[in-house]
Amino acid sequence: MVSTAATSVVSSASPETAGTGHSPYLHPARPRPLARPDRCSASPFPTLPALPGLPGAGEQVSFVRLRVPLSIANVGPGFDHFGLCLEGPADVLELRRARAAALEVYGDGGVPRDLKRNVATVAAQELFRLAGEPYRVEARLWKGYHGGSGIGSSGASAVAGALGAASLLALDGSKSETLSWVLQAARKGERVASGSDHVDNAAASLFGGFTLVEAADELRIHRIVPPEGLRIVVALPDLRVETRKARAVLPPEVPRGDAVNNASRAGALVLGLLRGDLPLVGRSLVDRLAEPYREVLVPGLPEARTHGLAAGAWGVALAGSGPAVFALAPDELGTEVAAALANGFAEKNIRADTFISRVGEGAELVGWG
Ligand code: HSE
Asked: Which of 62, 316, 336, 337 is the most exposed place for a label (fewest CB within 10 A)?
């Protein structure tokens, strides 16, 4: 059955959802009211991002609170190197200096409560280690959405931990060393969660917009602010896929034709973003390196794609390692496309919630003192 009811998956105690009792990002297929005008990149060229605002370098900080939106990795052909930031849902993390390290988690999320296994605290501890500081921090984490969903829950937590720690230490955000530490620490968090070093989700959650990991080993990242009018329609089927398992189904080698497909599609997608050609971006969402092998884990994916395209989506693809599926669509078709994606899953008797998001602007420090 297809659900169109708002789903209460996030703790009502979350600062994200206070007063509503449910996530604003899980709702019937209905566009959200415009929060602010769309923004276009001032420059048509990718820009090297700067870290989101940190407290003044060297300032005495005993408490920070961050909001970090979730994201969609791969974005079709960009396996492990493309990412697209959502406006929400988002993780919220508070870090406070204390006598001893501690962790509280709200909003279910099914995430570990153990400091050494929770992605946010692993990343925060790694940042402290890199900075040569003892980790004595109380952490409170409100999960925006549970893991195993495909919309970068662990990437958001990893960024929250790493950036939160850098903020608490009042590191200089304009220094490349700080940026490098934040990315390294976030990557450590992701490694603990999935056993792999991918930073595509983390890059998008941190910087917002569309991100391109140019060289994963050197942690070089570019950001493009996508053109106006792009809506991300997400369907969350009632399935769980662990990234670790979704990576285990991938073959170590791929046929040359598939590699060529992904290289050309990835190039076309970036070109489409820079030119503001959204139909080109959408039709470039064709991945032959990962998605075909992951279809076994996500029944309903081919049907969701067929229905989504028929409803007018520019393109449809698996979100990260799934099971979420996303479509890129014009604003006015968001509702129809969301219903179509859900109908695709319904054909396999799988319930799917949907939401429509603008492109998000990345991690935000929302309080400190
Ligand atoms: N690039 C990663 C993968 C993202 O596809 O395994 C996981 O969300």
From this structure: 62
Question: Among the atoms of ligand 1, which is closest to the Cα of residue 200?
Answer: 1
Q: Pick the atom of ligand 1 nearest to 247's CA.
A: 6
Measured distance CA(131)–CA(355) in Å, rounded: 39
Cα separation, 145 vs 183, in Å, equals 22
Token representation of residue 287 = 């991945």
Q: Whose CA is nearest to atom 1 of ligand 1?
A: 80
Coil, helix or strand for 186?
A: helix
User: How much is the pLDDT for 20?
Assistant: 33
**Is the confidence at residue 353, as pLDDT, over 60?**
yes
- Where in 195-277 does DSSP place strands (E)? 210-215, 220-224, 230-237
Q: Which of 100-114, 191-205, 269-283, 324-338 has the lowest mean pLDDT?
A: 100-114
Residue 1 predicted with pLDDT over 50: no
Rounded to 10 deg, the angle between the 153-168 and 119-131 helix axes is 30
Alpha carbon 204 to chain centroid, angstroms: 6
Instruction: Please enumerate in sequence order all residues whose Cβ is within 8 A of that of 167, keeping only pairs 6 or more positions apart, or say none.
Output: 54, 55, 61, 64, 66, 95, 365, 368
